[in-house]
Amino acid sequence: MTTPGSYTFQAWRRRGGATLDATGVDGRARGKVALTATASTGEQANDTVDFALYGPADVQGLLPGAVTACYPRPGEPQAEITFCPYVEFAEPDLPWRYSPDGAGADGQMRPWPALLAVTANEFVPLGDGTVELGVAVQQAHPLGKSAWSAHVQLYPGSDRQVGRVLCLRRLEQHPTGSAQHPTGSAQLPTGSVLACLSPDTTYHALLVPAFAADGTARWDGTRSVRVPVLYHWVFRTVAGETDFHALAEQLHAAPGHQQFGRVPVRIGPELTGGTAVTVQVRGALTGIADPDGPRPDQAAARLAALLRFDPDHTCGGSTDPNCRGKDAAGRPYLRPPVYGEAWRARPLDGAPAGGWVREIDEDPRHRAVAGLGLSAAAALQDEITSAAAERAGATAAANQRISALVAGLAAARSLWQVRGPASPPDQLRTLGLALGRIAATGDDPAREERLLDLVAGGNRTLPRALFTSAARRVLRPGAARYRHSAPGALDDAGLFAAANSERPAVHRPAEAHGDQRLTKGVAHADLLARALRNVGGRPVRNSDELMAVLGGSDRSPAVTAATERFGTPDRRPPRPVDLGKLAAVLTRAFDPTTDPVAVPRVLATIDPPDPQPLAPREPCLPLDVAVWSWLRDTGREWLLPGAHTLADGDVVGLAANPVFVDAFLTGANTQALGELRWHNLRLPTGCTPLRRFWDRYAPSTDPNALRQTTDITGIDSWTGPPGNTDPATDPRRLPLGDDSHGPGGTARRRLVVAFRTDLFRRYPGTLVYLARQQNNWQQADLTSGGRKEPEFAARITPGLVLFAFDIDPPSLATTYFVVVEQAPPGFRFRSSNMLPPHTPDGIVAGPSQSVAAAGLDPPVRVLLNGRDLAGGA
């Protein structure tokens, strides 16, 4: 038993009857077991029982789920030849369960299945679940010492066990084209690798029985054989022989003398006024300590004159760059754009020196970058327009709702002014039927009730029946009851006033008038009558009989007590309603000229809200377009100047350049606004549709989540309102790349680590992160608390990959290691490490647990010193 690290391997495992001593006979494990039977009388009888275990001939196939994992995975297009294929089983004893022979003298047991890795021309499928194996493939998979190919792995801290069978194919030498390659314990020529697989080859992995029905080996390499296939999958090896370990070993800091991040730009004599001048323009990624150089003042002055081009002096000699010269026909001369005009009229008027407006319009270096952005937007116009149409997909529906709402409000207001009720009684009569459909709050502001329940019925004087359609029909003008009623009795004012006055609750007998004994309880006479039922033998069935009992001089004390209990002291007096206030509430609910309820209901279905709620929506939603991809495809030298000098394996620390991002996106948005408006897409004044330079997309349907991944804020916030020219508060005073131009106002210079390697193409799941250095770079804090994960990654070419981290770039040289870690691939067994020393035939042998322990390949982790990477910039 061998324990490499924390994993334990065993040679084999059996359970149940298979653990009994047995000898292989005719393809089955047979043996005897001694039994003793003891009767209740104490007598004993001894005997032996012959038994036989299932063998390979009894296996018809594997049940679904018997195989739980295999390496390489099915369909793998880039399997590494340096690792041995294998198959894992759900039941750890399955590889030895049907073996006809027990363990040998060396403690090893041959498994009954064997795993083969064969090419398409090395076997013949026969169509009935069997294949024919030729002599060559048999010799490549010798069965004589197959015990090494199977083992049991135990997991620490748990009862989990896994039975595993490795591929039997013998190991062969393959040239690597490199003088450096780990070869394990085998002695190999320089520049070769020992592996059981060949590069750039499609393999069929076949799990087949290793024993015939009689218990002999299924093949011996002398003639073709036919074997059933128990499990099968296909994979393809990678063209190169290098694996993750070899590629990771090649990573190193780029030589410190290399310079990255500057593009030479030639300014012709037309701008310099003399000889041409070459200036250095910083790209999107620059060295960590690489500031802008001095501005070419002579070229800047010539550029300013070009912006004021006016050969016909139509501007009267004005030096105002916003004045456009015109020819004799009054046509303005075509001139370079004034960046900032899309967000503020005459942006150069009063613009402070050193601010972003002056920089981008007068410094030829920044104008070159803005021109790149303008070209990018022109090239990406179809993508930008499609993204804008997708983002504004609901704008048409929202504007249709708003248009219908505005038209309805206009019609309703006109109708209300002509036909709407004017007086409070008229308003109550016309709108009172809707009291039951209006929600309101009463004494408890947290409880919402129907307005009808608050003003009618219960302890209110107004009857609920007055606000029904039946009452409206009964009281409509012109009926006979109008002619026979007192003048004005059924008018709206008199009717609502009478209905709102307090009335007796029950009939009072005439003979009881003025009787002080009847002042209590009379309002609940029916309730009291039902409670009493009879008094002194006299039945009490209604209020009249109750009045007679109460009016008698012989009223008993029980009647008096009941009267006190059910009378007025326990009953709140009815409250009248303020008819004028009720009419005002009703009118406010329906009056379309004030604040109609339809407006908030319709606007609640439209998001986001707008300061002008009834105006057509012109949303300025950031588009899901990362413009860096255009530079990657057409102007790669501007993205990472000097990238062509990076050699294979070079790693360099860089800094994202917010000055470049601001200038590029200003030019791109200037062009994009024109393109979108030309396509008749509604955009508000001051919109900034393109806010993403890098591809840092957060997967969310929430528009705010997209804004959190943008690189700039709206450019209208950089220019400020037209009237603001105060040098202390004018946002135009801030330079390009200022932190306030980014979302949240946080630091915008991010660390970017560039890798020139094939590692990430071959292994896309590779982990890259920063780890804090400890003990003066002697250790690294690899715990989750000491890690810094990348903010985003970008691939310039298949072999040039960027990882960005939200930290100050200079801190790389003082604080962090860059860690490249192999993603957990599962368990892998390196073929070259499994071969014993001085084994020329390439056949693996030895105890299976030792072979597994030697071949187990741990994941690779590479630490690159941040001081070296920062120095490479």
Explain this structure.
By secondary structure, the protein is an alpha+beta fold. β3 and β4 form a beta hairpin. α6 crosses α7 and α15 packs across α17. Mean pLDDT is 81; it is low at 1-5, 177-190, 516-523, 565-571 and 703-708.
Query: How many runs of DSSP E, i.e. beta strands?
Result: 33
- Give a quick account of the main beta sheet: strands, pairing sense, barrel closure: 6 strands, mixed
Per DSSP, the total helix count is 29
* Rg: 46 Å
Large-scale geometry: flat
How much of the polypeptide forms β-strand, as a percent range? 15-25%
Outline the secondary-structure elements.
Elements: E1 8-10, E2 23-25, E3 28-38, E4 44-52, E5 67-71, E6 86-89, H1 94-97, E7 113-118, E8 123-125, E9 130-133, H2 135-140, E10 150-154, E11 161-166, E12 172-175, E13 192-195, E14 202-209, E15 225-228, E16 231-236, H3 244-249, E17 252-253, E18 262-267, H4 269-272, E19 277-282, E20 285-286, H5 297-307, H6 356-362, H7 364-379, H8 381-391, H9 395-419, H10 424-431, E21 439-441, E22 448-450, H11 451-455, H12 469-474, H13 480-484, H14 492-499, H15 525-532, E23 534-535, E24 538-539, H16 543-551, H17 557-566, H18 579-590, H19 598-603, H20 628-634, H21 636-639, E25 650-656, H22 658-678, H23 703-707, H24 716-719, E26 751-756, H25 759-762, E27 767-774, E28 779-781, E29 787-788, E30 792-797, E31 800-805, H26 812-815, E32 816-821, H27 831-834, H28 848-855, E33 861-865, H29 866-871
Parallel strand pairs: 17-25
Antiparallel strand pairs: 1-10, 2-3, 3-4, 5-6, 6-11, 7-14, 8-9, 9-15, 10-11, 12-13, 14-16, 18-19, 20-25, 21-22, 23-24, 25-26, 26-31, 27-28, 27-29, 27-32, 30-31, 32-33
